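Hi R.,

Here's the chain you asked about this morning:
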Amino acid sequence: MNKLEIDKKIFESFTVTIITESSLKKYYITASSKIQKQSNVVFEDIINFLNAESASIVYQFIFANLANENNTLKKLNEIQKVNWPISWMQGDCCNDNCFTGSQFFAISGTELTPIISNNKIVGYFYETEAAEFCYLANIYSDNIELSNSEQVDNTFNKINDILHSLNMNFSNIARMWNYLDDLLSWYDDFNVTRTAFFNKHNIFKNKLTPAATGIGAANSAGAAYLGNVIAIKPKNNQISVDEIISPMQCPALDYKSSFSRAVKIEQFESKQIYVSGTASIEPMGKTVHIDDIKGQIELTMEVISEILSSQNITWENVSDSIAYFTKLEDVKILNQFLKENRYPDFPITISHANICRDNLLFELELNAIK
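And the predicted structure, written out as tokens:
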């Protein structure tokens, strides 16, 4: 039976976790905080590294002011033709002109099939002997004149149609990212629309709702909603995709938010988990530590620690993460907390954005592999 090997490399401007399964390699890349001053240099370093590895970029997240997008994409194309989807998000509360972070996901050692929608690449598909994998990014409604909720429904249907074209469906989604422009004004409506769609397509009957993140961020298309997706369709019993119950929080479904706290993928005597965007929410679903960023960070880290421990996974197994802050100056409080509590170094991308409740100051999501 194949086994997965894990290798972490730390460079001056980025970190990379490499997962090797036979000839297949996956690269989880996090740009360092230095991206604020030298983003194009950092991107060039990353692309050069991946080219040396004969790896292809599958998608990229960029968290930055939209005013920088055209110039950055122009310079990226000068380095290498951009043939991967980029989700560029400007947080609802972001009013500065700097980059806060970027993530790349890349693959080598297998054939990647590009997924085309409206004459542009929106993702990639590949398969192994165990499963089929689909990665979609920067998906939004074809008609941004629709109402916010209609755009969500339109985008979900668009994702579903793409998956159907690959002989997959919405119930194969293990991980979703939901970026809502002006999130705080319509997050409840988003939840109603999402739940209605899930009911219509029998997602709940499959006993797995995706791990997910919901964050306030605008996009250059001017769409109300932008989505990113990872879908996995097992071919046999060599791989399984299942929900993880959070030991310290109730299921999000209990307060009508349709996502799993975490999802695990087990194969080849290994385990990968996607932990949803997690914040300072107590077991009954209420926000705690209001106006206390340190308290919110402490509880969030404790909740995630318990999820990891329940799967015999530690913080050392984290391959990549995204930390969302409503106040960018609070990043130093997270760094201090991690240092004081002796957390091992793990890759963190920073985003300056609103979170799904106006009393939440911090949220963390992550991917871990053992």
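Helices lie at 35-52, 69-79, 148-165, 187-200, 293-310, 331-340.

Let me know if you need anything else.
M.
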